[in-house]
Amino acid sequence: MSAKAEIRNVPIPGAKAQRDPRGERRRRSPAENDDMVFAVLAKADRPLTAYELLRRLRTKGVTAPPTVYRSLDRLIKDGFAHRLETLNAFVACARPHHRSAAIFAICRKCGTTAEFSDAKLAPQITDWAKRLRFHAEESILEIRGECENCQA
To answer: What confidence score (pLDDT) does residue 17 get?
Structure first.
């Protein structure tokens, strides 16, 4: 079997403080916001919507939805996160910067999500797209069903 499950939690440097050495509030850089958003995604046990992320980040001073959405856009573009279309939610990438098709098994009962990779699937998808004269920008496959725990 060529597909293998990957652990979603990916360590990154911690978010930087939001106060300067004199104790005054300062504006965070986009990279600092990205680190905070990624840290929350990486620790989550299930996919999170942007508003769930915002609720978890409020204690760190993030109060505006556009801040979260901009960070998510950058994280997705840089290969650190995925958007699960069927859930309208986000997960940290199990293997940042991988260039193969992302495959997700999503439990419809408990929301547990596992990311898989399969080196044989990406070329097949590329071939299918070429035959259709379709330019594929990304390939994300979502498989919905019940995880082992929910089947019991």
So the answer is: 41
Please tell me the total count of domains within the chain: 1
Beta-carbon count within 10 A of 57 CB: 20
Domain that includes residue 13, residue range: 4-151
Q: Give the CATH number, domain containing residue 63.
A: 1.10.10.10
Tokens 């950058």 — which residue? 74
Confidence of residue 131 (pLDDT cuts 50, 70, 90): very high
